[in-house]
Design goal:
35% helix, mainly alpha
Length: 104
């Protein structure tokens, strides 16, 4: 589904993780439509970015801020006893992902 530069370069490693070769590694993808997605979750194709506006005029990243996507991530971290986290989210203000997780 995801075809960005990161996914093209990391495809082999992500497939290894998906097929259980690294059972201690959790990968979550930040999706504008679905929120947090695991590698093995099936999703439908969509065209939506965090900066797009919803029908009510609110930007998608603001929606996820209000819905507490960061809390969902924090709960996942605690539930799975995750001790190390690497964020590969873009830091550019053009992509406001970090604003969604600023509380975390």
């Amino acid at each position: 589904m995801y075809a960005g530069n990161f996914y093209r370069k990391a495809k082999k490693v992500l497939l290894d993780i998906l097929h259980g070769k690294c059972p201690h590694i959790h990968v979550l993808i930040v999706s504008a439509l679905y929120g947090l997605v695991k590698l093995d979750e099936g999703i439908k194709e969509y065209e939506l970015t965090m900066y797009d506006k919803l029908v009510n005029g609110i930007r998608v990243y603001r929606f996820w801020q209000r819905e507490g996507l960061w809390k969902i991530l924090l709960d996942y971290i605690h539930k799975n006893k995750i001790t190390y986290i690497w964020s590969l989210l873009p830091s550019s203000t053009q992509y406001p992902y970090h604003q969604v997780f600023e509380e975390l």
